[in-house]
Design a protein that fits this description.
Layout (H helix, E strand, L loop, with lengths): L4 H9 L9 H13 L16 H4 L2 H10 L5 E3 L2 E3 L13 H12 L11 H7 L41 H12 L2 H8 L1
Antiparallel strand pairs: 1-2
Helix pairs in contact: 2-5, 5-6
Length: 187
C-alpha cells in the first residue's frame, strides 16, 4: 500500500503561510500562557489584542521584554494589577524579541509597524536594570473605547487564514518519521 502522507501534505501546501510570516508565532507560545492564545488577556496578563501599548511606541514593548513589568497598568481603559508582574526576558536574542513583538503588533487586530533587530539592539543596554512600571514607559495614545453594543471579548480580533495550528503540528509530526500512519501499521 502506498504511503498517503506525501499526497496529504501536498494537498495542504497551498494553504501553508510563508515561513517568515509566522516566525514570531512559534515564539508567542510563551507569551500566550499569560496573555492568552488570541491575545485576549488572562488572570495572569493584560490583553494584547487592540492594546494601545502594543500599537504604541515599539520601544515600550522592547523595554518590557528586556526588563519585565511590575505594578498596575491601564489597558483599553481597564486597570490591571498582577502581583507577579511580567518577568524579564532579556535572555532572548534580539532576533527572537523582534520576531515575537512583530507578530504581536500585527496580530489580534493590532496594526503596528514591525520591530527590527536594530531597534532591539539599541535598547539592549537597558536590560538587567530591574523591572519597569507603567510610569517608566512612553504613554501611548489612548485606545479607542470598546464597542458598547457587543460584549464579546474577541470583537477586535482579525480572522486567521489557513488551517489551525494543531493541523500544522500534526502534519509536521507525521512528516518527521512516517507519522501516525506508520505507527498504526506497526501495532
Amino acid at each position: 500500500m502506498a504511503n498517503p502522507l506525501p499526497s496529504f501534505l501536498l494537498a495542504f501546501a497551498a494553504f501553508a503561510p510563508p515561513l517568515h510570516a509566522n516566525e514570531g508565532f512559534s515564539k508567542y507560545t510563551l507569551c500566550a500562557a499569560c496573555h492568552g492564545q488570541s491575545g485576549e488577556g488572562t488572570n495572569l496578563g493584560p490583553p494584547l489584542a487592540g492594546s494601545e501599548w502594543v500599537n504604541g511606541p515599539a520601544e515600550n514593548l522592547i523595554r518590557i521584554q528586556l526588563r519585565g513589568l511590575q505594578g498596575p497598568i491601564k489597558v483599553k481603559g481597564v486597570d490591571y494589577h498582577f502581583p507577579g508582574g511580567m518577568p524579564a526576558l532579556g535572555h532572548q536574542s534580539d532576533e527572537d524579541i523582534a520576531a515575537v513583538l512583530t507578530f504581536v503588533r500585527s496580530s489580534f487586530g493590532n496594526d503596528a509597524p514591525a520591530v527590527t533587530t536594530a531597534e532591539v539592539a539599541a535598547v539592549r543596554k537597558d536590560a538587567g536594570n530591574g523591572p519597569l512600571t507603567a510610569e517608566d514607559l512612553i504613554t501611548p495614545p489612548t485606545a479607542a473605547p470598546a464597542k458598547s453594543e457587543s460584549s464579546g471579548k474577541y470583537d477586535d480580533l482579525e480572522a486567521r487564514s489557513g488551517p489551525p495550528a494543531w493541523l500544522w503540528f500534526f502534519l509536521l509530526a507525521a512528516a518527521a518519521g512516517g507519522g501516525l500512519f506508520a505507527l498504526s501499521r506497526r501495532s
